[in-house]
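3.2 Worked example (two chains)
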Amino acid sequence: MKNDSLKEIAEVIKKAQSIMLFPHENPDGDALGSCSALCRCLRNMGKTAWILTDDDVPANLNFLGEGMRTLDENIIEEPDLCICVDCGDPGRIEKRYEKFRAGRKTICIDHHMSSGFFCDYNYIDPEEAATGQIIFDLLRELEHKPDKETGEDIFAAVTTDTGDFQYSNTQKKSHLIAAELYDWGVDFNKVSVEIYENVRPEKIMLKNCAMATLKLMGGGKGAMVSVTQEMLEKTGASMDESEGLAQDLRSISGVEYSAVLKEYEEKKIKVSLRAKRLGNVATMAEALGGGGHIKAAGCTLKMPIRQAEETIEKALSSAIKELEQK
């Protein structure tokens, strides 16, 4: 299977009048920034366009897609086109999948490794640092006139998925896009403050609770923490405010692998995995039923938190041993 071209996808979009965009569950900056940029473009083209989410977005990302997001699946009863953005797996839009399939045509735009195409039109490029970079190219095919707000959406997408241009996935293209966005009138400081310096006290308290569970393994090459429902109740924080913990762990001197376990339900533990320089967490996640990128991946374990901790500790220890043998 091969991708359709962005030009072909643009032609499909141009012919549609009502369009719904679907970011993945628990949307991050790339998913929301990409959806917001595309939605603005579609509305500027005179189309009816909405971003459908299945839950609230993190407080620091609430500015993305504001006025364009909805929880109402029936806001467009029979969409001409449904587009999943930053999501190449139907399991990541599980609650909205029936609505997604209701689109007369479907498109997938993503940069995550995928086991296969599931839409009428697909553009999946794991070589791209962020889906926002693909959307940037798509906007050109749609002949979008550059503007400040759309540029800020694109910048938010790229800066979050490249770790503010620090992660190893950052490309020359990432910087070139940022450079071009200066000409769009983007307020980079405003976007950065919204994303990185807009933290509720409850998030800080949750981080303190999670860090109290810190466990190092493999001579300090692996690090793991857990976030439980008890912690959320104690601090008044929401689970989305646990975002960033994996990066915090990876920043510890000597740590190559990090894992954050999030207890959503008694037997539903979502795991965020990160690698610093030499490791590969994509294969680790795949072995546990998940997936993702080489340096950032995840999975869901249907077991109690303590059993999940043992499972992940074993996986991390094994990965560290393999790394030491190379």
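3.2.1 Second chain
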Amino acid sequence: MEKPRSTDKQKVRSAEVGTDILKALAELSPATSLSRLAEHVQMPASKVHRYLQALIASGFAEQNGATNHYGLGREALRVGLAALGSLDVLKVAALPLAELRDELNETCFLAVWGNQGATVVHIEPAVRAVTVVTQLGSVLPLLSSSTGLVFSAFLPERETRELRDQELNASAQHLLADEAAYAQVCAQIRARGLHHIHGLLLPGVDALSAPVFNALGNVAAVLTVVGPTSLFQADENGPAAQKLLSTTQTVSWRMGYQPA
């Protein structure tokens, strides 16, 4: 016999409450008191306590015997790690990247950090006669591209040092050969959250780049918009920059990133 719909609705509501409490435990991690948790989810403490007991029994929550505070349990950690493992920045960014291209009508691409450096893994070309051709699989220079410099700013130095030395050996007169100048540029990129280049890599072509972060706060990719100088306004305070930042923030959020 089919169960009454009211029972099904109660089960759904119960599941919703349970997930709300789990989210709150994550937001208040590593541990929180019952009263603070109840205030955070805006529920009576007695009700929250009942749900906590069920979550503890299933391994999704745990209570510290010394402090009586609550936190996420092993099962929550296991599920969280599985979710992180299933996140693919290319899949997550594909639709937002296409939407950004539609808004700006400029070529947009996503790059990840590979063995050779910043590598283009997805491209959304501009739909017009005058466009900038970027090849899938292209490896962009560290010091002469906005994409590479954004990676430089957010990656640990040990990951970029060898490539930087190689590029400086090939071009001793590079503008960023000076350590202080290089450090200043990286600091500016971190402060602004993006970087632009006017015709440095290719004459007549401007580029604007911003990072995408994962749930651990590490740079997972860099999203770049490129276009001809005569048509594309790549200024860091312009409308294209704001749309780029909005897109990278959306992708970062979907990757599980929560800024401090």
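3.3 Remarks
The CA atoms of residues 18 and 51 lie 6 Å apart.
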